[in-house]
Amino acid sequence: MGFKCGIVGLPNVGKSTLFNALTQTAAAEAANYPFCTIEPNVGDVGVPDPRLDTLAEIGKSARTIPTRLTFVDIAGLVRGASKGEGLGNQFLGHIREVDAVAYVLRCFEDDDVTHVEGRIAPVSDADTVETELMLADMESLEKRRTPLEKKAKSGEKDAKAQLALIDKALELLREGKPARMASVSQEERGGFDALQLLTAKPVLYVCNVDEASAATGNSHSAQVAERAKAEGAGCVVISAKIEAELAGLAVDEREAYLAELGLAEPGLNKLIREGYQLLDLVTYFTVGPKEARAWTVTRGTRAPQAAGVIHSDFEKGFIRAETISYGDFAGLGGELAAKEAGKMRLEGKEYVVADGDVMHFRVAN
User: In 3D, which of 55, 15, 49 has the Cα closest to residue 288?
Assistant: First the structure.
């Protein structure tokens, strides 16, 4: 698995330009007017990971297969979307299907590109988006609360538990705080996630800056970074314009172009890293002559469930996992050398997969 990230924000903040660049397609029409993205565009990209290339070279693999990241470009939100303004209902429905939400915020000045509210104020824009999502969550929970309350009073245990979670979320929302700030125990987590609240999803702030600010950010992006830090959210500075230009270059020309701009890497790489950290994901690898492949799982995943990502039968028939850390595999020059150095471990069903593990699963036929 990779993860699915919804790209949201007010109209004309650069969402579609960013989407086109990140997915290297022209699937989303980037135009200077609201709602140019009517239906959500979906694009998959391979997750760049230099470790995979190193493993493929060592293993003399015929091909490399990175893990995948799905971007969903969702129609621009406007004030009143929770009440159906603009394309509100469609917008809100599409957000429920993603794992994390990237708030694209306009952090550049350009008189030729109109702003739906007539000013450049990214933190205020973030508040507009968040407020609409909170209002939609409140309406959804209040509708569900009345019938649940009746069931809870009649003694239904599940209804009581669900009602308690709804009230916990509503208390926050009524205070103007998103549901992701709720204190939820491990036992409550499944029930809380089942509420499918828009504001319970992890948030990544994406500051779309002008080309000159791509390396260092600017005063607008600094304000957003301060907000993100206070919330414990992710924050990335990126220039959609630069990413669009990169997407149009040949692969061997991109490095020189980035160096010319004082950038160490494409914005996509930063965005993916922040997204992985936000969702607490780790990557493990399988290496062989046919292919070297990256697989992504949630941190804390045990070996049988990690094997199940490859094929459900692998989880059912799991016996053990032959495991080598990436550092040992790469540093010693491959599986055989790692074995001879005593660096291969035989891990059982309780083993928690670590980022960078190179794994070979033994399963019952």
Answer: 55
Instruction: Quote the CA–CA distance of 80 and 132 in Å, as a whole number.
Output: 7
Cα 166 off chain centre by? 25
Q: Which of 265, 257, 249 is nearest to 24 (CA)?
A: 249
Are 274 and 236 spatial neighbours (Cβ–Cβ below 8 Å)?
yes
End-to-end CA distance of the chain: 24
User: Tens of pLDDT along 246-297?
Assistant: 888 887 898 899 999 989 888 888 888 888 888 889 999 999 999 999 999 9
Residue closest to 221 by CA, chosen among 232, 199, 237: 237
Which residues have CB under 8 Å from 9's CB, separation 6+? Answer: 15, 76, 77, 103, 104, 105, 106, 125, 129
Tokens representing residue 107 in the block: 């952090």
- Residues with Cβ within 8 Å of 283's Cβ and at least 6 positions away in sequence, in order, are 47, 49, 51, 67, 276, 294, 295, 296, 355, 356
